Amino acid sequence: MNFAVRGIVAGIAVVGFVVSALVGMFQAGVIFPPAVGTTPTVRVSGELSALFSVPRSSFMPLATGLTPTPPMGWNGYNHFNRAVTAATVEAAARALVSSGMKAAGYNYVNLDGGWDLPRRNAGGTLQPDPTKFPQGIRPLADYVHSLGLKFGIYTSAGIENCAGTTAGSYGHYRLDAATFASWGVDYIKLDWCYVPYRSYPHTTHRQLDEMLAMQMGYALAVTGRAIVFDVNNPANSQPRSSSGGLANLWRTTTDIKDTYPSMLVNFTHNVNQYKRGPGGWNDPDMLEIGNGGMSTTEYQSQLSLWAEMAAPLIAGNDLSTMSGATRSVLTNLAVIAVDQDQLGQQGYPVASANGHWVLTKPLANGDRAVLLFNQTNASATISTTVTQVGLTSPGDYTLLNLWTGAATETAGVITASVPPHSVVFYGIAKSVTRPFRT
Q1: Strand, coil or helix: what is 176?
Q2: Which end of the chain has the lower number of beta carbons within 10 A, N or C?
Q3: CATH of the domain at 90
Q4: Is 258 a catalytic site residue?
């Protein structure tokens, strides 16, 4: 694919880039059948947890066909916190469709913490809060599905959710997985709070984390339903070791806030953990775009950085009232195409001195997505070369700016003046015509 040729307007180049990089974007697979082992088990809260009984081979490989590219969707927590109701979810689902976000690839509508009651019912099942979800969860999932979208839900690996306000899944993984499957759930976010580590004095936190992730993955597998598994353990300093292969995506950072410093912390913590994908994804947490705490420039930077890192793109704003500017950022198809590229490689830094970043991401067609990011408070000229970003063929290259649509040519040097907190994001391809620069 070429981003531009002589006499072709930049808009056509954008279309070409998007079409090429989005091939296969909506593919899905079927979750694998588990292999069941017979080894000693332990009883936890009345349920055979099989904490030590599930062989690792049961999860190799995980259902990576469900997530050949990073998941995209919406979760209301960043904007609404725990006040999300059935009406909130329905409005968000409709807005995903009407805004064009569904067409751009956002297809999961996910509940976060606060949907259930503090106590289970007499049969041990989690109970939706009747004031927020008077019809229960299944009708809500059905409504989301009726719009051509998928439905996700939240639970905690521990005894309670992270706010300490609702019941968690510890000791009930198989029951809860079966319940979620019966409700038509397509995505599980497993948070990591109130885990009873003291009950396992001879097991390290990391070992127990891995065993719990394995146990829930097994519980989801035996339901027979294709369910994306999101391990949300931000306290884990080595998420690739404990979650890779056991989940479709896993948190690598603390919870994000709607501030530039918070976004920057999550980026810098995630960017060097780039040996993942395709099928399993590092998650630096959800998008804050449109929540009001950052500028449009900073929101463009977040989407660009997340796309370059092949991160999940989970919007966290009020979709029903978002501005045109917010919608424009969230639906930039050229940037989304980088995130959803089928090669599935996370972009990696080749320079970062003084807060002036150069990241490069190989694409499935042989091109590169190159991001120049200025994390500082002063404008800066950031430069690199095609060789430094991994392009070795001699000759000229076309640079397509993925935010402005402008196309330029270079014989080797890539340079741009980058405002504070901003990015310049290029798709770079080998030129097939004589350079059009003068």
Answers
A1: helix
A2: C
A3: 3.20.20.70
A4: no
**Quick one: which of 40, 64, 169, 47 has its CA closest to 115?**
169
Q: Is the pTM of this model over 0.85?
A: yes
Residue 338 resides in a domain: no
Domain boundary pick from 217, 251, 285 = 251
Residues 415, 389 share a domain: yes
What is the average pLDDT across 155-169? 93
Cα distance between residue 221 and residue 229, in whole Å = 10
Q: Is residue 246 part of a domain?
A: yes
- Secondary structure (3-state) at 349: strand
* Residue range of the domain that includes 110: 29-251
Distance CA 188, CA 64 (A): 15
* Pair 54, 214: CB distance under 8 Å: yes
- Kindly state whether residues 40 and 181 are assigned to the same domain: yes
Segment 345-369 mean pLDDT: 97
CA atoms of 185 and 108, how far apart (whole Å): 10
Positive or negative torsion for Cα 312, 235, 243, 240: positive
- Dihedral pair phi/psi, residue 364, rounded to 5°: -60, -30
296-308 vs 260-270: helix crossing angle, rounded to 10? 10
Over residues 244-271, the mean pLDDT reads 92
Task: State the catalytic residue, choosing from 186, 191, 285, 341.
Answer: 191
CA distance 88 to 51: 37
Count of all residues that appear for the chain in the document: 438
Indicate if 114 and 210 belong to the same structural domain. yes
Residue 255 is a catalytic residue: yes
What are residue 75's DSSP bridge partners?
110
**Residue 164: strand, helix, or coil:** coil
Q: Provide the pLDDT confidence category of residue 63 given band limits of 50, 70 and 90.
A: low
Strand order in the sheet with 150-156: 281-283, 249-251, 228-232, 187-191, 150-156, 108-110, 72-75, 313-315
Greatest alpha-carbon pair distance for the chain in Å reads 77
Share of the chain above pLDDT 90, in %: 74
Same domain? For 64 and 130 the reply is yes
